[in-house]
Write a structure and sequence with these properties.
binds magnesium ion, flat, Rossmann fold, 13 strands, DNA polymerase, domain 1, 3 domains, about 375 residues, Ubiquitin-like (UB roll), alpha/beta, 4-stranded antiparallel sheet, 6-stranded mixed sheet, binds guanosine-5'-triphosphate
Length: about 375
């Protein structure tokens, strides 16, 4: 599961990426600094893990993670190959969700590719290129389906109808993700991964001083996001990247001084995590408390398989307790004694916040 960071050149994508992943990608005040995409892993901030570790007495904690890809900037005409067009679009095709970074900060030393900061225009520029790339994909599918129709395949009629519907929606500026297509209609797309089908969050990159202009800019970004049913987050990538470089105590003090409870990036990482339709379960074995990410709807044996394939194969039962109940009980042992640990079988669908001890042939997790 991967999240792609997209936006205009100089929007601050690599700055956001570095702050999130500490991967040290190149950042500079000229467009197309990023050419090859950068990949990095972010730990998902989750208070629950640390609370569990405190109660259970884990020496080590391992958070869940999300993979981020920092992609080259996109400009008008990218869908026709302008800028780093095709390369950029190829990278986006492979991601599962999108963080769209929108420049709100003003800094005369850092050129804006179109002269001035204009969040509405900037978002539309990017979204138009994504839609145009999708229209080209749909056109190719239409050509293929028409070819099949000519050779006498009668089943292509509904496929062509769906493709026409998707194309006209894209031409009107409606992203595929908002069309609410049925499973059958989706089948018409023959597994083509349309860019506007991917879930998105908008990140407004504001100035260090959160000025009046920044607030106005963020409101515009938030309004566009809301109209699409998407989330919008406001951060100063520059401040966040400075925080990320501080030792943790100093970072905490800095954050408090700014009147914040946590780095703004935590919100971005968590939002990305939800965008991927992931939930977290916890294990507490061998002095190691660990958060694991799984798709919503995953059953217990497959969740066990995340830890080790042997545990999926030999799955017998799962001992399960919600993290908050475990905190009240103080230990797995006490919770078991009070009958608060449930024994679940292979059809159990793991819930967000479950703490699980798997029993499998050959041992326990
Ligand atoms: N003042 C200010 N400058 C910022 C902020 N975020 C990024 N910058 C600067 O803007 C410039 C571009 O930042 P990058 O992170 O390289 O931007 P990018 O979107 O990755 O750009 P490309 O890779 O060229 O597409 C750098 O000089 C950053 O230091 C911010 O919040 N405030
Ligand atoms: Mg970059």
């Amino acid at each position: 599961m991967e999240v792609g960071i997209i936006g205009l050149p100089n929007a601050g994508k690599s700055t956001v990426f570095n702050a999130i992943t500490r991967a040290g990608a190149e950042v500079a005040g000229y467009p197309f600094t990023t050419i090859e995409s950068n990949m990095g892993i972010a730990a998902v901030p989750d208070e629950r893990l640390y609370k569990i570790a405190e109660v259970v007495g884990c020496k080590k904690t391992i958070p869940a993670t999300v993979k981020f890809i920092d992609i080259a900037g996109l400009v008008r005409g990218a869908s026709r190959g302008e800028g780093l067009g095709n390369q950029f679009l190829g990278y986006i095709r492979n991601v599962d969700a999108i963080v769209h970074v929108v420049r709100c900060f003003s800094d005369e030393n850092i050129p804006h590719v179109y002269g001035a900061v204009d969040p509405k225009e900037d978002i539309e520029t990017i979204n138009l290129e994504l839609a145009l790339a999708d229209i080209a994909t749909v056109d190719r599918l239409i050509d293929k389906a028409q070819g099949r129709a000519k050779s006498g395949d009668k089943d292509t009629k509904s496929t062509l109808a769906t493709l026409a519907k998707v194309k006209s929606a894209l031409q009107e500026g409606t992203p595929m993700r908002l069309l609410g297509l049925s499973g059958d209609e989706r089948a018409a797309l023959a597994g083509a991964s349309l860019l506007t089908d991917k879930p998105v969050i908008y990140v407004a990159n504001v100035s260090e001083d959160f000025s009046e202009a920044d607030r106005a800019c963020f409101s515009k970004v938030a309004a566009i996001a809301e109209a699409e049913g998407a989330d919008a987050v406001e951060i100063s990538a520059k401040v966040e990247s400075e925080i990320a470089e501080l030792p943790s105590e100093e970072a905490e003090e800095f954050i408090r001084d700014l009147g914040l409870e946590e780095p703004g990036l935590n919100k971005v990482i968590r939002a990305a995590f939800h965008l991927l339709n992931l939930i977290t379960f916890f294990t507490t074995e061998s002095g190691e408390c660990r958060a694991w990410q799984i798709k919503k709807g995953t059953r217990a044996p497959q969740a066990a398989g995340k830890i080790h394939t042997d545990m999926e194969r030999g799955f017998i039962k799962a001992e399960v307790i919600n993290w908050a109940n475990l905190l009240e009980e103080g230990s797995f042992h006490a919770a078991r004694e009070h009958g608060h640990v449930r024994l679940e079988g292979k059809d159990y669908i793991v819930q967000d916040g479950d703490v699980i001890l798997f029993r499998f042939s050959g041992g326990r997790s």
